[in-house]
Amino acid sequence: MVNIRQKKPVFRMVVAGSLIAALASQTAFAQSTPDARREALRVGPHPGMMPHAGRMFPGRSLAGVPGFPLPTLHTQRAYAPDGTFTSRWTRADALQIKAHSSTSVPAGQNSLPAQLIMPDIPADFPTINPDVWVWDTWTLIDRHANQFSYNGWEVIFCLTADKNAGYGFDDRHTHARIGFFYRRAGIPVSRRPANGGWIYGGLLIPEGAQEQVFAGTTYTLTAEWSGSLRLLDPHDNRVSLFYTDMAFNRDANGQDITPAQAVITQSLGQIHADFRHVWFTGFTTHTALLRPDGVLYQNGEQNPFYNFRDPFTFEDPEHPGVNYMVFEGNTAGQRGTPNCTTEDLGYRPNDPHAETLQQVLDSGAYYQKASIGLAVAENASMSKWKFLSPLISANCVNDQTERPQVYIKNGKYYIFTISHRTTYAAGVDGPDGVYGFVGNGIRSDFQPMNYGSGLVLGNPTDLNQAPGTDYDPNPQQNPRAFQSYSHYVMPGGLVESFIDTVETRRGGTLSPTVKVAIRSDASVVDLRYGNGGLGGYGDIPANRAAINVRAFILDLIGQNIPIRSNTNGQINSFVNTNQ
């Protein structure tokens, strides 16, 4: 007690001194310029971390970083889905990635915020199948993107290519076919094989059936690219495939004679299952839904390297019964025309770190014109669609916003997409991985997540080093900068992807699943999930079950499997113990 009383005068002096210092600093702050006040409020980045990295969701701050421009202000305001408002992922937004990247890490390390980076995939990863490469992967979903098992089986759909056909992994894209895999539902990771236990079921579409879309045109080969697959009714076995039908017209050296044709296409089929396996029928008729129009979405005449692919369909809870589709596109216009605007740059007025429009145009950044498109179905069968204005543009920022999907959580609308470091425009940079945007409706003034940057889940990357490529890596770059790609965000924040290159080993197989925790406009990688943040390889669980006993019995009969008196009991036991 005596010691405490003796310390009181000292304590009061310290408090008084602190108050005087605080008042003095406030007076000086009030007399400073607006730019100086803004700079004083910022907090510099710690190596490999975002500012205030001790917080669970540090990415909510939009205070910026000294020496960099502030991110664009986005309201998240919702607009009518059929309106003309297009949100922008601006250069000011994308520069926040560089702003929060450390400049002092040793070569080959990760310079990006640790809470936004996928943990390292081991180089001794298992492969899902010895005969096919696997990359873009999606699930059996309903109109609200719930993932379904069917009669006791989980099912996934992947772009596949034959490992034994004489071409290499990097030539797979023109040979891509949609394959499917299945496994018993509800088996925990600890009881599965290391590679996830997925069984290859074969190709989904009968050989050559998709070529009917290109009747009357000239092409030398076709391919099937990514999309989504809708279970039309959880009490039925009818499914609708939406995918990107591709046709190439190439010479003997593999060079394009004419631009590739990309057509968003629908095909209908049926899913079947018995005690032993899963199979599909149908997919013999293919209906062209959308071709780029050159008005809202760039086409091959405007740009031989245009992007138009990856349909993802859903029903908006705010518009019951209306089906929408998001897809990857490019802003319409002739390639190479320097037509970016100050709105595409997105700098706040009088920002001392802003680029001028002329500086950006002089850099050649106008070749990058990614967009996320929107379409609406005009009939209940979803066989007729019309374009709506793009949801997001990335002019002068990036050229690819692949595999977009809509994810709704707590009344917020998230658009997740994937992109490459090598598709960024001059002057902006970011890793291969997932980018996210949040708003209050399908069409919103979307806020890029995490400090306004858009980065949600990147590969470990050193932005201080040149990227190299997955097939010709830069030895100074992080050896896992291309470890995974084609991420797909699932219910509960689980994220699956495929392995591209880990150290010097090429993949073509499913990655470990990771989990992203999301709160409003920020996210973090959940390191409590799995082993240090890495779940099982191909851990793609269903969160809903479709059980159709009548169809199960018909499938047993069709497979000539004997029907015993207790078949109903067997079926119920099978589907219930595998959920």
TrEMBL record:
<feature type="binding site">
    <location>
        <position position="399"/>
    </location>
    <ligand>
        <name>Ca(2+)</name>
    </ligand>
</feature>
<keyword id="KW-0479">Metal-binding</keyword>
<dbReference type="InterPro" id="IPR003469">
    <property type="entry name" value="Glyco_hydro_68"/>
</dbReference>
<dbReference type="GO" id="GO:0046872">
    <property type="term" value="F:metal ion binding"/>
</dbReference>
<feature type="binding site">
    <location>
        <begin position="400"/>
        <end position="402"/>
    </location>
    <ligand>
        <name>substrate</name>
    </ligand>
</feature>
<feature type="binding site">
    <location>
        <begin position="309"/>
        <end position="310"/>
    </location>
    <ligand>
        <name>substrate</name>
    </ligand>
</feature>
<dbReference type="GO" id="GO:0016787">
    <property type="term" value="F:hydrolase activity"/>
</dbReference>
<dbReference type="InterPro" id="IPR023296">
    <property type="entry name" value="Glyco_hydro_beta-prop_sf"/>
</dbReference>
<feature type="signal peptide">
    <location>
        <begin position="1"/>
        <end position="30"/>
    </location>
</feature>
<keyword id="KW-0732">Signal</keyword>
<dbReference type="GO" id="GO:0009758">
    <property type="term" value="P:carbohydrate utilization"/>
</dbReference>
<dbReference type="Pfam" id="PF02435">
    <property type="entry name" value="Glyco_hydro_68"/>
</dbReference>
<comment type="similarity">
    <text>Belongs to the glycosyl hydrolase 68 family.</text>
</comment>
<keyword id="KW-0378">Hydrolase</keyword>
<feature type="binding site">
    <location>
        <position position="226"/>
    </location>
    <ligand>
        <name>substrate</name>
    </ligand>
</feature>
<dbReference type="GO" id="GO:0050053">
    <property type="term" value="F:levansucrase activity"/>
</dbReference>
<keyword id="KW-0106">Calcium</keyword>
<protein>
    <submittedName>
        <fullName>Glycoside hydrolase family 68 protein</fullName>
    </submittedName>
</protein>
<feature type="site" description="Transition state stabilizer">
    <location>
        <position position="310"/>
    </location>
</feature>
